[in-house]
Structure formats: structure tokens, C-alpha cells
Design goal:
single chain; about 400 residues; mainly alpha; 17 helices; about 0% strand
Length: about 400
């Protein structure tokens, strides 16, 4: 136990901890903070989030056909509000804009004229368009109308059961699985869920950045530990006793425990600003959504999905910790350590971490525009394989050290 505590003290080097904290602050403001500032990126996303939150309190996690009929009245009311707001914009009446429909006709006519003129904008008309869009509930009306159209198209597909959604472009060997999944969703109430697309998108992007940081954090903390032992020639002293021969196992255990603790701290620190954006309003919503074309493999709620992503990041962090300790034991100095730690971070963090958290547990291709589609649960399989690889390498290193000659 004393050896284990001493190894933990060696990992928690104050200078390295300070450097990691400083780098973590810089990293946060360079990358993940964007998805906090723009959690609802744009006025359409703001309207989408607001409408979904209102419906959640009124209709629950799904919208039935009878509830859909009520949206016709809501749209009429929103258009009436738009017309009243137009009265405060004198330039609108001068341009012949009296209601939402006439504004849409004016907007479309202007865009056609601009395209015909070689994309040369008329600044007065541009100003009027944005004055009306920003000064009324235009985005709310537009978003509501778009949702109603998407709902009606989904209802038509349910009636004839010929649609395949995002599966239309899938290769032949996977199309059947995707169609079976979507057919099952069509028969459940989840088919008419409405988790905002902006919430799902921000969640995925934020989780990707968090996964990369957790890997980087563990690589920076754990890389110097075994190197320091070699620099100060402590290994010969350790090998002089039977307990010292087993110190590598203790060091690897301490590294794994440190990685889990650091990951837990990161999850909490990153979770606070994320949860302040209000996504837990939709914690009981299913992942299938009218707002999005993405189709999930599993019937999880959004709250469950957040926990699964946290578990996936934890497994990835543990794998990165074990691989870091294994690689660093073969470095005789800090330069050699960096030459090994950098590619390790790129492979496990920047590449594997970003890929694993990019739309996890949804139907997706192996990479962008790839002709091959992934299989169900491939993210969990890949993360567990990395962890298993790290465990096997570390156990082999421990056995090799115990059998090595003095």
C-alpha cells in the first residue's frame, strides 16, 4: 500500500499538474467552449429548441397525430403575431409587405433577382430583409412550418412503409439491417419524437472535444513517471528486492486509477457548463427525432445517451493510460518519451477519440463519404479493444520484468 501511495505522489507532480491545468484552460477556450457559446447555433436553432421545450411540457416526449393538428392553429397564431410585429416596421408597408406570405414572396423574388444579377446584392433590400427577420418572429414561424412539413412527410412514409430515410444510400449488405431498424421505429411512438437537432449536434461535438482532452490529459500526466525512474536510476534499486520486481504492476495500477480519477474530474468540469444550457429538458426523449435524419441503433433516451457517452470516454481514457505507461517504460529520456507520446496521442485521442464520439451509436459510415457503413455498437467494440490491447501489453510487460535477469 505504501508503494502504491508513493507512485500516486510521483504521478501527481505539482509542476506537471500546473502545466496540465494551464493547457486545459487554453484547450477549453480554443475548442469545446464554442459548442457552449453556440449550443443553439443560429436563430433557427434557437427557435427549434424553444418550440421543442414548449411542446415537451404540453405533449410529452412524442407528438401524436391529434397533437399535430393543433400545430395548424399555433402556426396561424404565429403568423398573426408576425403581422402585428410588421406594423412597427414602416419600410415593410412601403415595400408592399403586409404579412408572412407576402414577406416570403418578397424574399424569394429578391433572391431570384440577385442570382440573375450575378449575386450582386442590393443593400437597401438586404437591410430590410434582415430588419424584418430579426425584428419579428420570422424564424419561429419558419421553423414551425418546417417541422410540420417534416412531420407530414414522416406520416406519409409510415402509411406506405416504403421510405428508408438515411438508409437509401447504404450499401446492399447493410441496407436490410437499416431498413429493419427503421421499420421497427415506425411501429413505435418514438418515430414521432422531436429531440432538437441542435442539442444532438452540440452533444456529439462537445463529447468529441472532451474525449480528445481526456486522452491528452492522461498522456501528459503519465508519460514522465517511468522515464523519471530510468533517469534517476531507480530501477536497479527496485530490482534488488522481490517486492521491487513487482513495482511495475503497482505503477500501472496507479496509472489506471489516476486516469479514472482525472476522467471523472474532467466529466464534472465539462458537464457543468454543458448542463447549464438546458439539455436535460429532453432527458426522457428518445434519440429518434423529426428534426433530424439520423437514425440511432438503440432505443435509448437522451439522458441514457449522455451516460453512455461518459462511459465510452472513461473506457477510452483507461485504454490511453495503459498504453501510455507501456510505451513510456521504453524511453530513456524525455525526448524519447515525447517522440512516443505524440504519436500515441494522435492515434488514440485525435483519431480514435474523435471517430468514436462522432455520432456514436447512430447509423453512419466508417468515415466521411466512405462506401462502407458501420455495424451496431462498433464504438463500444473499438473502445473495449483498445482497453484490452492496453491490458494485454501491460500484463506482458509485468511478466517480462519479473522473469528478467538481474
Amino acid at each position: 500500500m505504501e508503494i502504491w501511495k508513493w507512485e500516486l505522489r510521483k504521478i501527481a507532480n505539482p509542476g506537471i499538474l500546473a502545466a496540465v491545468v494551464l493547457l486545459g484552460i487554453v484547450y477549453y477556450y480554443m475548442f469545446p467552449s464554442f459548442y457552449i457559446r453556440y449550443f443553439r447555433n443560429g436563430p433557427n436553432a434557437e427557435a427549434e429548441f424553444a418550440l421543442s421545450a414548449e411542446w415537451a411540457a404540453k405533449y410529452g416526449v412524442t407528438m401524436e397525430p391529434s397533437e399535430r393538428e393543433e400545430l395548424d392553429g399555433q402556426l396561424a397564431g404565429e403568423k398573426a403575431d408576425f403581422q402585428e410585429m410588421l406594423l412597427a416596421i414602416a419600410e415593410a408597408s412601403d415595400a408592399g409587405i403586409a404579412d408572412y406570405d407576402s414577406f416570403c414572396a418578397y424574399r424569394d423574388s429578391y433572391y431570384d433577382q440577385t442570382a440573375a444579377a450575378g449575386s450582386v446584392a442590393d443593400m437597401e433590400q438586404e437591410w430590410l430583409l434582415h430588419r424584418i427577420m430579426d425584428g419579428t418572429n420570422y424564424y419561429r414561424v419558419q421553423t414551425l412550418a418546417g417541422f410540420m412539413d417534416a412531420y407530414d412527410r414522416r406520416a406519409e412514409r409510415t402509411a406506405d412503409r416504403t421510405g428508408t430515410g438515411i438508409c437509401r444510400s447504404a450499401p446492399d449488405d447493410d441496407t436490410d439491417a437499416m431498413r429493419r431498424r427503421e421499420s421497427g421505429l415506425m411501429q413505435s411512438a418514438r418515430w414521432y419524437g422531436y429531440l432538437p437537432g441542435c442539442v444532438w449536434q452540440s452533444t456529439c461535438e462537445y463529447a468529441k472535444d472532451l474525449a480528445v482532452w481526456c486522452v491528452l490529459c492522461n498522456v501528459l500526466l503519465l508519460s514522465p513517471v517511468l522515464v523519471r525512474d530510468r533517469i534517476y536510476r531507480t530501477r536497479p534499486m527496485q530490482w534488488s528486492s522481490r517486492h521491487g520486481r513487482a513495482v511495475l504492476q503497482t505503477q500501472m495500477t496507479a496509472a489506471c486509477m489516476t486516469a479514472l480519477a482525472v476522467t471523472a474530474v474532467n466529466l464534472v468540469l465539462y458537464g457543468i457548463p454543458f448542463l447549464r444550457q438546458g439539455p436535460l429538458v429532453f432527458r426522457t426523449f428518445g434519440l429518434e427525432s423529426i428534426w433530424s435524419d439520423a437514425t440511432p441503433w438503440f432505443d435509448w433516451t437522451y439522458g441514457t445517451y449522455l451516460l453512455v457517452l461518459a462511459a465510452l470516454i472513461t473506457v477510452l481514457s483507461a485504454a490511453a493510460a495503459l498504453l501510455t505507461v507501456f510505451v513510456s517504460q521504453y524511453s530513456g529520456n524525455y525526448i524519447a518519451m515525447l517522440l512516443k507520446a505524440l504519436p500515441l496521442f494522435v492515434a488514440v485521442g485525435a483519431m480514435a477519440g474523435s471517430w468514436l464520439l462522432d455520432g456514436s451509436f447512430y447509423f453512419r459510415s466508417l468515415w466521411q463519404n466512405a462506401p462502407v457503413w458501420g455495424f451496431c455498437g462498433m464504438e463500444a467494440v473499438m473502445a473495449c479493444l483498445l482497453l484490452f490491447c492496453g491490458m494485454v501489453l501491460c500484463m506482458s510487460a509485468v511478466r517480462r520484468q519479473r522473469r528478467a535477469e538481474l
